[in-house]
Every structure is written in structure tokens, then in C-alpha cells.
Amino acid sequence: MAVFLTNEWFEQVEQMGNEAGELNLPPALANMIVNLKVSDAEQDIEANFTNGLLHRGLNDSATTTLLLDRDILQSIITDFDTNQIMGAFMSGKIRVEGDMSQLMAVQTARPSAEQKELYSRIKSATTMA
Description:
By secondary structure, the chain is α/β, with parallel strands linked by helices. Helices cover 43% and strands 24% of the residues. It contains six helices and seven strands. It has helices spanning 7-20, 27-30, 70-79, 82-90, 101-106, 113-124, and strands spanning 2-3, 33-39, 45-50, 53-56, 64-69, 95-98, 126-127. Strands 4-3-2-5-6 form a five-stranded mixed β-sheet. Strands 1-7 form a two-stranded parallel sheet. A hairpin with a 5-residue loop joins β2 (33-39) and β3. α1 runs antiparallel to α6 (113-124). The longest helix has 14 residues, at 7-20.
């Protein structure tokens, strides 16, 4: 098991994503490219959400950047509870820089069965230490 957001974890996520193949993402998720700046006690982490997966580093094509902490991102990845995500946004725990329209479109998008299966595999292979 890899520790969440470590280089090893990103490598495992990429491998699992490649193995999963087509995720049949709804258009709002398939077209979403969002950068993430994650604050962490040890070090800040830059990542991006593209093609339904988290990737290391920032994506130059992103027009939106989310600023959030590790615990909030962990909750989003493990639970994908839209009410919890909206609550974190409304309370300022998730801040948005840039174009919010992608985030508004994703509110009604539901993950595909393939994406849910992949996220379940990622969750079971992740330690949140």
C-alpha cells in the first residue's frame, strides 16, 4: 500500500488507470482539467485532475485551480460525497482560482461504474498516513 499523495502513490494510480482502460466518464468529468494545490503539514503538493484521475504536477491546460488541504482532498477521493464537498467549499476549506464553470458542470455529473470501480481499487491500495 502506498501513502496518499506520495510519488509511489501517484505511480500506482497511473498504473491502475492504465490497467482500467476506458472509464466511460460523463462529459463534464471527461473534459475537466483542474489543478490542485494541496497544503500539507510536511510539504505542499501540486497535482491535477485530468481524464478522471489525479496526476502529479500542474497541468498547463487547466483554467481552474483548487486550493485545499490534504484532509479535504483525501475525503473527496475516498468518499466523493458532493454534499461534503459543497460544505467544504462554502466554509472556505476549498478555494477556487480561475474558471468556476467546470466545477459547476461537475455538480450534476455522476461517476461511471468503471470510474467507481477504479476509485475503489485506488482506495483499497492507499494508506492515509
